[in-house]
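To: structure subgroup
Subject: Chain for Friday's discussion

All,

I'm putting the inputs and outputs inline so they're searchable in the archive.
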Amino acid sequence: MPHRACTRLQVRAVVVSLGVNELTRPGSLGRWRRALRVLMSDLRARLGDEVPVAFCGLPPVHDFPVLPQPLRAVLGLRARQLDRVLVKVAREYGIRHVPLPMGAMAADRPAFFAADGFHPSAAGYQVAAEALAEVLSPGFRTGDR
């Protein structure tokens, strides 16, 4: 049964985008997993099972031009660890994990970063939005793929 506050909204899909900020906070992978499960339980309690949910994969931190080595490599490793947990929790809840389309980004990497070298540019957000839109299209069914 959807949460009463959400019944006024026409929620058609939920995208959960987490990651870069979480990289800077200490914590175990178990704590990360538990937090994701609490989030998903709350979403399901509020919205029911019919609203599609997708986790956006963590960005390729190991490619962030602004980060010096070895920090870039260490944060990149941590991002991949957190992303693997995202994949597992997505499977538990029958939702999608949408990795960023790295093939498109690799072709012209600088174009996908804002001037600060850390945040996505408009082109970077466009690539991510297209990948998410493909998954959350009207034909999307939870548990697919």
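Points worth raising on Friday:
The CA atoms of residues 82 and 129 lie 21 Å apart.
The first helix runs from residue 20 to 23.

D.
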